[in-house]
Design goal:
Helices cover about 50% and strands about 15% of the residues. It is an alpha+beta fold. It has 2 domains: about 60 residues, Antifreeze-like/N-acetylneuraminic acid synthase C-terminal domain (Type Iii Antifreeze Protein Isoform Hplc 12, Alpha-Beta Complex); about 190 residues, no CATH class. It has a 3-stranded antiparallel β-sheet. It is elongated, with a radius of gyration of 39 Å. The C terminus is likely disordered.
Length: about 325
Amino acid sequence: MSRIRFRQRQKLLAAAAGAAAALLLSTAAGTLYVRQIEQDYREDRSGYEQQIAAMEAQRIPVYALTRDIKAGQKISENDLTEIEVVRDTVPADMPKRKDAIGRYSKIALSKNTPLTSEMLYEGAVTPSDLRSQEFRLIELPTRLAQGDYVDVRVKFPTGEDFIVLSKKKTEDLASGTIWVRMNEREILTMSSAVVDAYLNDASIYAVSYIEPGLQQAAVVTYPSNSSVLDLIESDPNIVERAKTELERRMRDKLETGLDLLTPEEIQKYLNNKANASAVNPGTQSNSLIENSRQNADETGGAQTEADIFTDGGSTDTGN
């Protein structure tokens, strides 16, 4: 009986020793495996940190826009914010902040766009004889907006067509009146064209540029009439008389066109104008409508655009 118990105890001790040895081996193997994993992790992490450090070393500061910029618009200090990008993802000619401020955009740019030197151009130095001029006698494009660039042209009854002013920025626009900046030579050239149009029943109109930042200014082709310049010199008031007469002709031309419109065409015009205003809220308004509304306000009456068209046509018919 005692021998059986002794043998059972030996078996139990052997089993326990085997289990302990197996556990020890498993623990050792597990420890080695964990240490290997930790070593691999440290090596991978070190490699990633080195890559990140290398990328950070390649990052450079550049300047991006804080708002949308139109073509030909001047870049101001508040339009720029500093961001960091990887050197290899941008051109080498990224301008510094001081170099970008005061320059003009060649193309329309969206907010957050990093600026490159190729996107910008230098503005001309303001000459001492530059002046702001306003005109109501120029036939303007319907969708012309403040900030657009235009050529001012004169067209004679013979079909001859000349460029009087080249690539002029629309400084302001309201009710058919346009403001542009002109130097002394341009003022004299425009005055000659105004008197020429007055004397020869010509029309003065404007055409707008599509991409003013990319398109070069057109060459002025209008030859100032020496006799007209002599007439201006002898009678300076003729320029104002010519302006008034051309404005009157534009008004007569507009009202004549309105008389020929049918009610369906008037309604189509009003619908198109409402759609255009929703898409381009900065475009010019109709001077006839604005003047009629102003007259209505002065007399205490309110008119809709349809009333203005109808009243204008009925009044002319009655005359």
